[in-house]
TrEMBL record:
This is MBL fold metallo-hydrolase. Keywords: Hydrolase. Pfam families: Lactamase_B_2. PANTHER family: HYDROLASE C777.06C-RELATED, HYDROLASE C777.06C-RELATED-RELATED. Residues 34-225 form the Metallo-beta-lactamase domain. One of its GO terms (molecular function) is hydrolase activity. It comes from Chryseobacterium artocarpi. The keyword Transferase does not apply. The keyword Kinase does not apply.
Length: 255
């Protein structure tokens, strides 16, 4: 299987509009971060998208991706769902509704934000989705076992997702001991890390991530959902402890 980072930035992306800091003015492509999303390709070449934010169209075109078989949604914040309307060309081409897997709470929010996609009589050109409400237990789809990981993002529950011995978690500020058991001794763990210093009420910062790396002991840990406050890629990546890496848009992992 493969995982490609379509975006590794926070809700504002990097560069931030109007910001002239060292990161936002960097010419290094690794410092250009679209909103966080990944594409998982199964062994049968089926495509599993995790989150569909405002940069979805650009991400698909840049990475020469042409299909989405299913989408897993972590939570309902706009930087993770507002790009769903841009799935229309894929839906028109396949002639099929795109299956979305998410919390019941998230499904309700998606219906509220895209009511035209769920109307009894849809106007021509509207997207169409097939909502699947999931719980915190493993499920099988596309011949792939997917294990949800429940984490806390400020005051709401968010799902991360585990495939084989890789787990992807974004928008987390707390992980319970029960859920940590699912994350121990992985080959690859992907965690959000919004900045180096200054505790955040809803996201991990670098000291939190280093502590989790030492506790969970993955072979490799990649940071995502990165803001311009973390620093420029080429400097910060070299200063991280061995085994921890900054992810960047377009990075592909085999697992």
């Amino acid at each position: 299987m493969k995982l490609k980072f379509l975006g590794t930035g926070t809700s504002q992306g990097v560069p931030v509009i109007g910001c002239t800091c060292e990161v936002c003015t960097s010419e290094n492509p690794k410092d250009k971060r679209l909103r966080s999303s990944v594409m998982v390709t199964t062994e049968e070449n089926r495509k599993i998208l995790i989150d569909c934010g405002p940069d979805f169209r650009q991400q698909m075109l840049t990475n020469h991706e042409h299909t989405v078989d299913i989408a897993l949604i972590t939570h309902e914040h706009n930087d993770h769902v507002i790009g769903l309307d841009d799935m229309r060309p894929l839906i028109f081409k396949s002639g099929k509704d795109v299956p979305l897997y998410c919390y019941s709470r998230v499904a309700h929010e998606i219906k509220n934000r895209f009511p035209y996609a769920f109307a009894d009589v849809r106007y021509p050109g509207a997207p169409a989705f097939e909502l699947h409400e999931i719980e915190n237990k493993p499920f099988h789809v596309l011949d792939t076992e997917i294990t949800p990981i429940e984490v806390i993002h400020f005051k709401i529950s968010v799902f991360g997702y585990k495939f084989k011995n890789l787990a992807y978690i974004t928008d987390a500020g707390f992980i319970s001991d029960t859920e940590k058991e699912k994350l121990k001794n992985l080959d690859v763990l992907i965690l959000n890390c919004i900045r180096k210093f200054d505790p955040h009420p809803a996201h991990f910062i670098l000291p939190d991530v280093i502590k989790l790396f030492e506790e969970l002991k993955p072979k490799k840990l990649f940071l995502t959902h990165i803001s311009h406050h973390l620093g420029v890629h080429d400097i910060e990546d070299k200063q991280l402890p061995s085994g921890i890496h900054l992810a960047y848009d377009g990075l592909e992992l085999n697992f």
